[in-house]
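Write out structure tokens for Proteasome subunit alpha type.
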Amino acid sequence: MSRRYDSRTTIFSPEGRLYQVEYAMEAIGNAGSAIGILAKDGVVLVGEKKVTSKLLQTSMSTEKMYKIDDHVACAVAGIMSDANILINTARVQAQRYTFMYQEPMPVEQLVQSLCDTKQGYTQFGGLRPFGVSFLFAGWDKNHGFQLYMSDPSGNYGGWKAAAVGANNQAAQSILKQDYKDDATREEVVQLAIKVLSKTMDSTSLTAEKLELAEVYLTPSGSVKYHVHSPDSLTKLLVKHGVTQPAAETS
């Protein structure tokens, strides 16, 4: 049935579905997963790096985590080239707001403006929807710490814990069981690592296959975005019993 109605993004099927937008969401299901969890004192983002070949030079910069402004960061699942365009758009919008009003852009306003751009690509002929989902983590003075998830249709929503990418259904069901409202950032990091280790396709979770970032407030009251180094990740994985400590060579 879909074959007659999936040639353009602008054609509704008789059941009221936009097949091209649904196909874009399917593309994200094949990407490395990303998980975001809200804690009472911050937001934690964790992402799975897909190492396609051992000959590939792993990037020194992050592949899944991006800083948009001092108070907002995001995790990405999907087509990275599409994500880069949207991340640049979001960064420009955040800086324009700061330049105009001399204060950081509210997190939801930034997410909504980016989703408006995404939605435009589902409504005009000849355009392809962005094949990327985002998890936005941020803090503002209006609502404190926030976590948002957006998809290629331009929809977004606020979440306490969310997963996008491969095996997101399994990850969501574990999060639903184990998430606690008053969890600290340390407990949330442990939960995020546990969920990723249970849902990712590869057998063992190592620092090379993982990215972890946190958004939290410093004692002085400023928002800090911190990405864990590979050494820090290895210590965390050993601490939480996901990997065994490396044997010391004599």
